[in-house]
Specification:
The chain is 44% helix and 23% strand. The chain contains 16 helices and 17 strands.
């Protein structure tokens, strides 16, 4: 079975106001300690047959801001990976990068060590919106970064964009996305801004210094984006992800397809054979654990049958291929329609809106269904 490997690089130059992923402000001495600990963690998984005796088809550096690391530092981790695991010949090798940490020479070096997919955290081409998000790069830096990436030979580039930024109008979002499309990236990820508890942005909204975009405008932005991207040749394959043919993110597809994956680094998650675990979300405790030769696992669990069912539904409903009902019934020895008939009947009762399409033994959410994704998943969870 295909497996994916994720490396969490927990460093940022500055914490963005909307972000709730685990990261800390960069300290050069800690980076070197992290690199040593990271390679040590990789070596500890050499005795796990799920990963030591299978092939990794993807390697993904996320964060944080992985592009804080030089190519030499990243290659140190890659060499450790290659000494313990088997990587397929043409594995997808992705790094997330922020424009404020990128230069032409750094991108050149990334290509030289084999990175073949670049995910750029553009978020917006508008300086005032970047300021609202707490980003520290400017729109001109973002544009230059995209140009450099193509100049040094990247042929698989993703651009991350955020819509429904406080104060953003529909026209301003349209202008953003149209600018992105002009670069003809192979992949686009467009995310509706979520106000996460405990973030600086939540505090600013509660204080009345920022105002959320209305749900009506959010929907308009999303529907317009899907239509515009389709006309530009991009195929939607997940709620927030669009790609030119053949450029879907293989690593993320593994998450959604239920494939095994191993997460390395503070707060990283792993999953295999119904087993899930997650690492300590503290660099201090992560380093301390590995210094004693112990895996830095915060907790783990074997999924119950109910959890497996919900995860199967949750992951597949996110995608445009939807839930394969025959696969569901084979996996869980349950009749889908008997188990969830009440849910389907309830969803059919929404006035003047179609939330799902059920044909050829596939249950797929419509665009309206994607908008209500969390609510729909809750209906299914209540039946389990």
């Amino acid at each position: 079975m295909k497996s994916g490997l994720y490396i969490h690089v927990p460093f940022c130059l500055k914490k963005c106001d909307y972000c709730d992923f685990y990261s800390e402000i960069t300290e050069p001495t800690r980076i070197e300690k992290f690199l040593n600990a990271c390679t040590g963690e990789i070596e500890l998984y050499g005795d796990n047959p799920i990963f030591s005796q299978t092939e990794f088809h993807t390697l993904y550096f996320g964060g944080g801001t992985p592009s804080i690391l030089s190519a030499k530092q990243i290659d140190k981790i890659v060499q450790s990976v290659e000494s313990v695991f088997n990587l397929t010949k043409n594995f997808e090798f992705t790094i997330e990068a922020n424009p404020d940490t990128i230069s032409f020479s750094r991108l050149t070096d990334y290509r030289l060590i084999g990175i073949n997919r670049l995910s750029l955290g553009i978020q917006s081409f508008c300086d005032s919106e970047l300021h609202t998000l707490g980003r520290i790069h400017h729109a001109d830096q973002a544009k230059k970064c995209i140009e450099w990436a193509y100049q040094v030979g990247f042929e698989n580039i993703n651009l991350d964009l955020i819509f429904a930024i406080p104060g953003q109008t529909l026209y301003e979002w349209q202008t953003n996305l149209e600018q992105a499309i002009q670069y003809k990236p192979e992949h686009l990820s467009i995310y509706c801004l979520t106000i996460e508890p405990g973030t600086q942005m939540e505090r600013l909204i509660l204080a009345g210094e920022l105002y959320k975009v209305s749900e009506e405008i959010e929907r308009e932005m999303y529907f317009w984006s899907i239509d515009t991207l389709s006309k530009a040749g991009y195929q939607q394959y997940e709620i927030s992800n669009f790609a030119l043919t053949g450029f879907e993110c293989k690593h993320n597809l593994m998450y959604w397809n239920g494939s095994p994956y191993l997460g390395i680094g503070p707060s990283a998650h792993s999953f295999w054979n119904g087993h899930r675990q997650w690492n300590l979300n503290s660099i201090k405790h992560y380093l301390k654990s590995l210094k004693t030769g112990k895996k830095p696992i915060a907790d783990q669990e074997a999924l119950s049958q109910e959890q497996k069912i919900l995860e199967f539904l949750y992951l597949n409903l996110r995608t445009t291929h939807g839930v394969d009902i025959q696969q569901f019934e084979d996996l869980f020895n349950l009749s889908f329609t008997r188990k969830f008939g009440n849910v389907l009947e309830h969803l059919q009762g929404y006035p003047n809106v179609e939330l799902f399409d059920l044909k050829e033994n596939k249950l797929k959410l419509t665009t309206n269904g994607f908008v209500l994704f969390d609510e729909i998943c809750q209906y299914f969870a209540d039946e389990i």
